Amino acid sequence: MNGKQWDQLFDGFSQRRRQLRERSEQARELVAWYDEQTQLVMTLVREVARERAVAFERSANLSIDVLWPSHPPVNLDPDGPFMSFMCLRLPAREVHLYSHRVGADAPLIHFVVDYPGPPDRPQKRVLGRPGCRIEQRVGGGFLLRTVGGADNGREVSVDDLTYLAFELLLSDA
Description:
The chain is of the alpha+beta class. It is built from two helices and seven strands, in the order αβββββββα.
């Protein structure tokens, strides 16, 4: 082996280590951005939900509780999972929104509907439903896209997301 081959071997190793560090730093920055945007989206949903709950109370004379956080967040380690929780509640029914992220994957927001069963079967029923994925918008900010179903990948707004939560809360399942 000549000196040039040794240099190439060592340089190749150094380049791979540098690239690995850069990718690792980019992943950490992306995770931090995802966590920040998830907090923002959940805060915006809470604010829209509170406004709509006030309007609903005026209309139906019935109160909807908007709880966020409704449960302490789950963050087992930097690679996740990371979860945060919100709840919209009527006296006999609840809709839970929860965010979920593992590793550097885009976070998802899902719904779980919790309501009593029919009178002849009084056990609680739980219905899960996909919501959206939080993505980076070209030029900055976040973008929400539906996941699952016929509308998979359709762009939605915070108002759309909140409407779906209210629809699940107020409709017959």
